[in-house]
Specification:
- By secondary structure, this protein is an alpha+beta fold.
- It has a single domain, classed as Rossmann fold.
- The relative contact order is 0.14.
- It is an enzyme of class 2 (transferase).
- One of its GO terms (molecular function) is N-methyltransferase activity.
- Its EC number is 2.1.1.-.
- Belongs to the N(4)/N(6)-methyltransferase family.
């Protein structure tokens, strides 16, 4: 008889912690992957002056530039944690104040593009990364999904600053199990709130109550306690 998900959780957590330990050891030894800059995106025409015959000055040695990174996020986070002196990217470990993630929901759905034309059926051939990202199906079901997401959530904690927070966008398929993993990684007391996003779209059915909301788990890296001192004035 196969194990239930509750029985599988200790193994999932143990394997996830071991993978994170290997990744951090590799980063600390200087063997992490580096990020490669493929293109520099100029500011919009409203501020760049490109459409007025003027070329904006771009300082490639500028201290910070916003980055749009394409790739498997577990590899991307290794690059961010390690930094890259050749490209001027310092380690982002403990320096990020806010993370929002919208991972797959373990919905068993395939979101890859299929286009049907008269007498033609076209299937977009995704890259390896796109296969992983857009086919929300998992070899061993929810167990594989939880094994995938645990080390990623743990690396996100490494990136967060002491005042940092994370918002995890999830839904009913697997949210309750992800919450358990988040409690293990961040600590149960660091959970701040469960935010409900209710939407009007979606199909109606007479078989069960309509599923018309997603959940955002709001968690902080460290609990900050504020002391408020008030003074009363005597009349």
């Amino acid at each position: 008889m196969p194990l239930s998900l509750i029985e599988e959780l200790p193994k999932i957590v143990k394997e996830g912690r071991a993978e994170v330990a290997r990744i951090l050891e590799r980063i600390n030894s200087g063997n992490a992957l580096a990020l490669q800059t493929n293109e520099l995106v100029l500011p919009s025409k409203d501020v760049s002056g490109l459409y007025r015959g003027e070329l904006p000055s771009i300082d490639e040695n500028e201290e910070w530039k916003n980055r749009l990174i394409y790739g498997d996020n577990i590899l991307v986070m290794q690059g961010l944690l390690a930094g890259d002196s050749s490209s001027g990217l310092e380690s982002m470990r403990g320096k990020i104040d806010l993370i929002y993630i919208d991972p797959p929901f373990d919905s068993k759905a395939d979101y890859r593009t299929k286009i049907t034309l008269p007498n033609v059926n076209l299937n977009q051939k995704p890259t390896v990364i796109e296969q992983f990202a857009y086919a929300d199906t998992w070899k061993d079901g929810t167990v594989s999904y939880l094994k995938m997401i645990y080390p990623r959530l743990a690396l996100m904690r490494e990136l967060l600053s002491e005042k940092g927070s994370i918002y995890v966008h999830i839904d009913w398929h697997v949210g309750h199990y992800v919450k358990i993993l988040l409690d293990d990684i961040f600590g149960k007391n660091n959970f701040v709130n469960e935010i409900i996003w209710h939407y009007k779209t979606g199909g109606a059915t007479d078989r069960y109550f309509n599923r018309k909301h997603d959940t955002f788990f709001y968690i902080v890296k460290e609990i900050i306690i504020f002391t408020i001192i008030t003074k009363r004035k005597r009349l």
